[in-house]
Specification:
This protein has about 450 residues and is an alpha+beta fold. Helices cover about 30% and strands about 25% of the residues. It is built from twelve helices and 21 strands. The strands form five sheets. Strands 9-8-17-18-19-16-20 form a seven-stranded mixed β-sheet. Strands 2-1-14-13-12 form a five-stranded antiparallel β-sheet, with no helix packed on it.
């Protein structure tokens, strides 16, 4: 392996060893690095920021710890739990989800579709009729008709359709349901109908329980991972990739030669800095879709201090689709006796909102929904604009993703993680995908 500086001279030479370059020190990149280190594979991580974590980071503001967004650990596998628990050495707290849907002044326990008993009678009966009369043959392969087929007209009209329109900012009939998996709970008909008359005690959904660091913010995890990984160069913004020569260039003028490249940078950005794609592949890159987020982190005192972990808002009367309350699961999130929240507002790329105006609308919404009252006093704020939030699974996604992945694989480039692999991933998914990418890099070296 050689590294070439601005003066064109080789600054390091390691002959006879396979070198893997990892772009990005987020969860998936760090996980890949840890796996390669354990297998004694020569690797180097290039990270554009001056700290690890990507979007899984935290900020300190006036005695509050704000995560970049709502980051909670959900484990679907024993392997995922073992990895994280080993890194945090048992320093995690476990919580049973306490979440709800704010619907026309009613607080409906989440998931909405299993708690129809909390609705007023007329709406409850409408949702029950929809469940009983739904026609599953109407599903046409798009997300909108999938919702109708799974939950019926009532639940679709009152919650599923308005919430997902607000969340995705993309036509639901142009999306597929391939991403839903464990992310949208689909209880049995019997359970949903039972939930129309009484509360169901059984936990439903992949996030029915979650874990969070016992001390500090979510950035405790990537910092531990970075310590276990090593071999990270910070402040290295990757500005170009020559796939033919297998060279990565940084904005500093450095060049790093690789045998295998694991990319966790957002896939649309990767397409912009790589050379030599065919017209068809470039078209596939251009077809990629996503939504964006503005996240408002607010620290406050004076109450009221919501006891829910988070609340969903499907209505058009407020700009946010979800509000979470870190003080309910972390004693470090706010000074003792004070509260903190994050409010998420999505928008379509190219339609960047007026943040000042949006802040006024958001605060108005917090007061109108009772989250804030005249007693509430804002003590700290942080506003984050996330360009790439959730990849959109539209009807072009599968073919485009397959073509891009295949093309890059031929040149030793392995896509990895939520944004590098362009997947709807949880934190656990990203960590496990990093391990998988490392295995593929070694296997195909």
């Amino acid at each position: 392996m050689r590294v070439v500086g601005q003066d064109g001279r080789a600054r390091a030479q390691m002959s006879g060893k396979k070198r893997v370059i990892i772009v990005g020190a987020g969860l998936s990149g760090l996980s890949a690095g840890i796996s390669l280190r354990r297998n004694k594979v020569d690797f180097l991580i290039l990270e554009k920021e001056m700290e690890p974590g990507g979007l899984c980071r935290s900020k300190k503001r006036g005695g509050f710890i704000f995560d970049y967004d709502g980051h909670l650990l959900h484990f679907k596998t024993a392997a995922g739990f073992k990895i994280v628990n080993g890194l945090l050495k048992g320093e995690m707290a476990r919580f049973s989800r306490d979440a709800s849907v704010s619907f026309r002044g009613f607080d409906v326990p989440y998931p909405f579709q299993a708690n129809l008993h909390a609705l007023p009678e007329s709406l409850r009966l409408e949702c029950v009729r929809g469940l009983k009369n739904r026609d599953r043959s109407l599903c046409q392969g798009d997300f909108s008709s999938w919702i109708q087929a799974k939950f019926g007209a009532g639940i679709a009209r009152h919650f599923m359709l308005p919430y997902n329109r607000k969340f995705w900012r993309y036509p639901l009939n142009r999306m597929t349901s391939s991403w839903t998996g464990s992310f949208i709970p689909v209880p049995s008909s019997k359970k949903m109908l039972s939930g129309a008359s009484r509360a169901i005690k059984e936990p439903l959904g992949y996030n029915s329980s979650f874990w969070y660091p016992a001390a500090g913010g979510i950035d405790v995890l990537p910092r531990r991972m970075a310590g276990a990984c090593g071999n990270i160069l910070y402040g290295r913004h990757v500005s170009g990739i020559d796939r033919e020569r297998r060279v990565v260039r940084t904005a500093r003028g450095e060049e790093f030669v690789y045998d295998k490249l694991i990319s966790t940078m957002p896939l649309p950005d990767l397409g912009n800095i790589c050379s030599g794609f065919t017209r068809e592949v470039r078209k596939s890159f251009r077809s990629l879709r996503w939504n964006s987020l503005v996240v408002f982190n607010i620290g406050f005192n004076g109450g009221p201090f919501n006891s829910r972990h988070w609340i969903y808002f499907p209505g058009k009367d407020v700009p946010f689709f979800r509000v979470g309350f870190p003080h309910t699961f972390s004693s470090c999130a706010a000074p003792r006796g004070w509260g903190s929240l994050y409010a998420e507002v999505s928008y379509a790329p190219g339609r960047k909102p007026d943040v000042k105006r949006l802040r006024r609308e958001l605060l108005d919404g917090l007061y109108r929904t009772g989250i804030f009252t005249e007693r509430s006093r804002i003590c700290a704020e942080d506003i984050l604009n996330i360009q790439y939030a959730y990849p959109v699974y539209d009807h072009a996604y599968t073919a485009s993703h397959k073509l891009i992945t295949s093309c890059l694989r031929e040149d030793g480039v392995i896509l990895c993680g939520r944004y590098g692999g362009w997947n709807y991933f949880s934190m656990e998914d990203s960590i496990l995908d990093g391990m998988s990418a490392a295995e593929r890099a070694v296997k195909n070296a």
